[in-house]
Design a protein that fits this description.
Layout (H helix, E strand, L loop, with lengths): L22 H6 L15 E7 L5 E7 L1 H5 L3 E5 L25 E2 L5 E7 L2 H8 L3 E6 L6 H6 L10 E4 L2 H7 L2 E9 L12 E5 L5 E5 L4 H12 L6 E5 L13 H15 L3 E3 L3 H7 L6 E9 L5 E13 L5 H10 L10 E9 L13 H19 L3 H7 L21 H11 L2 H13 L4 E14 L8 E8 L5 E5 L8 H13 L6 E3 L2 E2 L14 H27 L7 E4 L2 E4 L2 E4 H10 L5 E7 L4 E3 L4 E3 L3 E14 L5 E10 L7 H19 L31 E6 L25 H12 L16 H12 L1
Parallel strand pairs: 1-12, 10-11, 14-15, 18-19, 28-29
Antiparallel strand pairs: 1-5, 2-4, 2-6, 3-5, 7-15, 8-13, 9-10, 9-12, 11-20, 13-14, 16-27, 17-18, 17-24, 21-22, 22-23, 25-26, 27-28
Length: 773
């Protein structure tokens, strides 16, 4: 194909639109997932036996009927685990595979049935007779604080300046409480693991996990073998969103233990109901906040206590609650600030990673504060946001003492305000509401500033393995996992660009711990940043050898060797890429390389609450308009305009899809997706029939999404791109704020409605009645 200047270019290089490499297989059903792997003869199936108490001593566990059930081969309990009965990802040893003396949440695994068929295992698991001695249980953060429940992990405090003194001096002060709901991942493909025993200590586990290395280590610990005996394979996942970062450890371990015990392949795949009951969710928070500000609505001090429902064990609650504090400023400068986390133990499933990783819960508190100030001062909330943006020196330091060096939030907001025609539309909304009709409208424009990097510094590394075969085809493997986000497509584009060959020449194989060791989770929006740079490093190593070979053979300078579209140019001679590679092979040039990358500049001291935990920030803004029926609380999203920053996009069409999907998922978190436990501690929203994710009909009637084409990452990321997975999730907050604006109209915008999240129609209606009362 030919580029803009008529020169020949490759197909599928970086910064170009390219269809997801598995798109056709996805829509035709030909994409292979873990459950599609052909089962060897004699494959067994496992199913978990779950507790039916939120907190209780196990007086007796009678499995006689279970073992006697048709098709049952055996039962696994804690005593059958050859290594350690623990899959805690943080090494706190607080997350047993199987409960022993007591259960600490409704749905906690106590045993696993191994049977000839999945149906037989599932039916048998229901036959256990358990004698419980009930203990008091605590289900939510407020109750946990009142009961004096322990922290599952040490809390964090971020502070700068003198928040209490500045608060006391402020002309205006507001205190409030904000309840922020959790969220289930609702991945299309549920949890699944398929273990195949090998000789000696070996076992291979095919799994739907975002973190193959952690699964490898966990299985090794549970089996009591070294990590080199365990191989974890991941071809693709049917969605993850953080829910398969640590939660898959349990399923991998159960399958592996059973496979080695009976020396037969074992698969475990829970029903959706049990999947939702036994695996963690987004943390819900109760946040007590206070803000002091001047007559213009400019913030002088902020204080906040972030209490989180963490569940019965630590899991990733430490870094999740940390990141909530990191993003409690969003795009705004707080001159004096004091923020504290409270990661509280509750008798619920242990909550875990979810897209945004605590960041959304922090960002929405910042937006609530802007909303509070706006209604107090009688000013458009967008104007209050602008007055409090990070700015020049003196207004550019975060609560964790990192200087914001790449602030483009004001420019993003300015451009969206104009392109979305915000001012005229806001006036039209105000005019409509002034009529006093039953139907009210609301509009809001909200920004996001999101830090990119793992706050656990050692996770910011990646590896890749690259082979160029003698026929010129290229085989690529890296440590990231594909869960539909297009990671493999982007990394292949990076390699295609490096060698200047068509995308079709490159094959990316399944992620496996056999090829790239010690990888980090595909999480924290870092998949392309880390693995793209590692693949680039591997390509550069091979290219350097090829250039040296060409310079020696053709007796020329290295600078005269150029990789051009599907060919190599050496001086005036042009050789097709495949022919050149054949020559290099015959000359015994090493055509394989292991690439590596570690993120520079980042550091974090948790004890002092200071450092540079983020390499850079990604920015975006959304403007949403809603219509609300004040008699029922029902609403719909009429229009959303988004302008989002992805730096120099590796693949604009995939990034745009990520922005659209993240917005809808974020909107769902704040509107329809409500988790509800009854007073006994049982999750009642445990299936799609009772837990409502957004439908296609819930999307904005008008949905305009654009990428900031002018943006380029100032840091040396892969091709100057920026992460895209998590930051646009928070753009859904614009819908929540627009709903609040519509509700506020019933009291002439004098009072902040203080909607709790999710803003279900019931909550919207109650807020309307409260303001009218």
């Amino acid at each position: 194909m030919r580029g803009d200047q008529g020169r020949v270019t490759i197909r599928g290089g970086v910064h170009t639109d390219l269809r997801h490499e598995s798109a056709i297989k996805h829509v035709t059903g030909r994409a292979d997932y873990c459950d599609d792997i052909p089962e060897p003869v004699g494959t067994l199936h496992a199913y978990l036996g779950l507790s039916t108490r939120a907190h209780a001593v196990i007086r007796a566990l009678d499995l006689t009927a279970v073992r006697a059930a048709p098709g049952v081969v055996g039962v696994l309990t804690a005593k059958d685990i050859p290594g350690v009965n623990d899959v805690s990802p943080t090494g706190r040893h607080d997350e047993p595979i199987f409960a022993t003396e007591k259960v600490e949440f409704w749905g906690q695994p106590m045993f696993a049935v191994i049977a000839d068929t999945r149906d037989a295992a599932r039916r048998a698991a229901r036959l256990a007779q358990v004698d419980y001695e009930d203990l008091p249980h605590v289900l939510d953060p407020e109750a946990a604080r009142q009961a004096g429940m322990e922290y599952v992990t040490p809390p964090l405090t971020l502070k700068r300046g003198a928040a209490r003194d500045a608060m006391a001096r402020a002309a205006h002060r507001i205190k409030g409480k904000f309840r922020i709901g959790g969220q289930d991942h609702m991945y299309l493909e549920g949890h699944i693991a398929f273990a195949i025993p090998g000789e000696d200590e070996d076992v291979t586990v095919h799994s739907s996990t975002q973190h193959p290395t952690e699964a490898q280590h966990m299985v090794a610990h549970v089996l009591g073998v070294p990590s080199n005996a365990v191989t974890i394979n991941v071809r693709r996942m049917g969605g993850g969103f953080g829910g398969k970062e640590t939660q898959m450890n349990l399923f991998c371990a159960v399958a592996a233990v059973a496979a080695k015990k009976w020396n037969r392949a074992v698969k475990i795949r829970p029903d959706r109901d049990d999947d939702m009951s036994a695996t963690g969710k987004r943390h819900d928070f109760v946040v007590d906040y206070e803000v002091g500000f001047d007559d213009a609505g400019r913030i002088e001090a902020v204080a906040g206590d972030f209490a989180a429902r963490c569940g019965f064990s630590s899991d990733l609650s430490g870094p999740v609650t940390d990141r909530a504090l990191f993003h409690a400023d969003n795009a705004y400068y707080y001159p004096n600030v004091l923020l504290s986390s409270h990661p509280l133990k509750t008798n619920t499933v242990s909550n875990t990673a979810f897209r945004g990783f605590g960041g959304p819960q922090g960002v929405i508190v910042a937006e609530r504060i802007m909303e509070e100030i706006a209604y107090h001062r009688g000013v458009d909330s967008l104007e209050i946001r602008k007055r409090n943006f990070y700015g020049e020196k003196g207004r550019d330091v975060t609560p964790y003492h990192q200087t914001v060096e790449d602030n483009i939030a004001p420019q993003i907001v300015r451009e969206l305000e104009e392109s979305a025609d915000y001012q005229a539309r806001r006036k039209a909304v105000l005019d409509w509401n002034a009529r006093g009709d039953t139907i009210r409208k609301g509009i809001a424009l909200t920004p996001v500033k999101f830090g990119i990097s793992f706050t656990a510094t050692w996770y910011n590394q990646a590896g890749a393995l690259l082979h160029v075969y003698s026929d010129g085809s290229i085989h690529l493997n890296h440590g990231g996992t594909e869960m539909g986000q297009g990671l493999n497509t982007k990394i292949a584009q990076v390699v295609a660009d490096a060698f200047q060959v068509d995308f079709d020449r490159i094959k990316i194989t399944r992620t496996t711990t056999e090829k790239v060791p010690n990888t980090s989770a595909t999480a924290a929006s870092s998949g392309s940043d880390l693995n793209g740079m590692a693949a680039q490093d591997a390509a550069d190593q091979i290219k350097a050898r090829l250039v040296a070979f060409a310079a020696e053979r053709w007796q020329t300078e290295a600078g005269n060797v150029r990789f051009i579209a599907n060919a190599v140019q050496i001086g005036e001679e042009t050789i097709p890429f495949a022919d050149f590679i054949r020559m290099a092979y015959m000359a015994r040039v090493h055509l394989s390389a292991a690439g590596f990358y570690k993120t520079p500049k980042i550091h974090w001291d948790r004890d002092t609450g200071t450092g540079r935990p983020f390499y850079y920030y990604a920015y975006g803004a959304a403007c949403s308009e809603v219509t609300v029926d004040t008699l029922t609380g029902e609403y719909r999203v009429e229009r959303t305009d988004i302008l989002h920053d992805v730096g120099r996009s590796l693949n604009p069409v995939i990034d745009k899809g990520q922005v659209e999907g993240a917005f809808i998922q974020g909107m769902g978190w704040l509107t329809t997706e409500e988790l509800w436990w009854d007073d006994k501690g049982q999750l009642r929203t445990h299936a799609p029939s009772t837990y409502k994710i957004p439908l296609a009909s819930d999307r904005p009637r008008v949905f305009n999404v654009e990428l900031a084409a002018w943006s380029e990452n100032r840091e040396n990321t892969i091709k100057r791109s920026k992460a895209v997975g998590e930051p646009p999730f928070m753009l859904g907050i614009s819908v929540f704020e627009a709903l609040s604006h519509a509700v506020a109209s019933v009291a002439d915008y004098k009072t902040c409605p203080r909607l709790d999240a999710p803003a279900t129609p019931e909550r919207v209606l109650m807020a309307i009645e409260r303001l009218r009362g």
